[in-house]
């Protein structure tokens, strides 16, 4: 039986398809923008400059200084530039870091965002922004930071290296999975979440085998879009809180931290929401809830993603510090947790041991 529910369907204009990013000039003109600030990372500067050339006089500047986790100093400098250049739109070309910087600008200046995502992180579908100050990452929600237009062009992800594609796709997978057992879950978002899990689990191994496989890229982009809607529509749980802390406090690479930790978070929650976990098991082809976390662990293995948090830079005291920070600021989870339980989860993830005995 369908339970009563309530959620906000977010107003975003979406274009999806190979080559769709070529529409960008017309879209910006139709919206009446005349002073567009192109935002990207130092690594994607060349792409940002090319995009600016394509847009000609519509662009006021290219700002290629986005970095992961949006440090406040970086955000403040970018806000200054947007004001100084009299920008009337932020055009974000890149992954979550770039879109995160555009969101920080929008939060302060009310500038609209147009996003062309090039990873699978999903930030473009959410009202969530993050800022990192003194090694603590805080997040908030504001409709001002939600992009007005999002263009998904799978062709742009072809240059994303296979290893980053794999972990970025598992970051998307984490959004979809936590949506399944969200406090405010609902049948529409759960349906999208299952479709996202299936799309991503099929596409990512293909991409790792052949990063130029445009059909697989399209399927992963589709899964990432759906997972982004999940992230933007319902609340997440302890897994996301742990990963924010790993990123904000230890500057760990966001997508890899998500991919590694996901196997343990799911295993921890395996019996907390039986309906959700059974649906997840079905989508992943696993019949026993005890093995759902292990299936993610094996998927990571097959995608050549590192298996241990210690291998991506978490120091030895990391598990205890993260467990303490997470416990200091309690967050929803379908299963209760305390410091000892989190420490156990994080210690296993630190070592990269299978979440359950692997027979
Ligand atoms: P990222 O944006 O940092 O990108 C990783 C690297 O890949 C960067 O060097 C980038 O320039 C490069 N890159 C991106 N696309 C490329 C492409 N197509 N070809 C070649 N190189 C490419 O990584 P991410 O995982 O997308 O984003 C992580 C950040 O996003 C974190 O700060 C995280 O907190 C945030 N995030 C926020 C939300 C939200 O809703 N607010 C959601 C997800 C992630």
UniProtKB/TrEMBL annotation:
Locate the Fe-containing alcohol dehydrogenase-like C-terminal domain: which residues? 166-350
Alphabetized GO MF terms: alcohol dehydrogenase (NAD+) activity; maleylacetate reductase activity; metal ion binding
Ranges of residues in domain Alcohol dehydrogenase iron-type/glycerol dehydrogenase GldA: 11-154
UniProt KW keywords = NAD, Oxidoreductase
Gene3D superfamilies noted in UniProt? 3.40.50.1970, Dehydroquinate synthase-like - alpha domain (1.20.1090.10)
- Tell me the InterPro entries matching this sequence: ADH_Fe/GldA, ADH_Fe_C, Alcohol_dehydrogenase_Fe, MAR
Q: Which family does it belong to?
A: Belongs to the iron-containing alcohol dehydrogenase family.
Official protein name in the record: Maleylacetate reductase
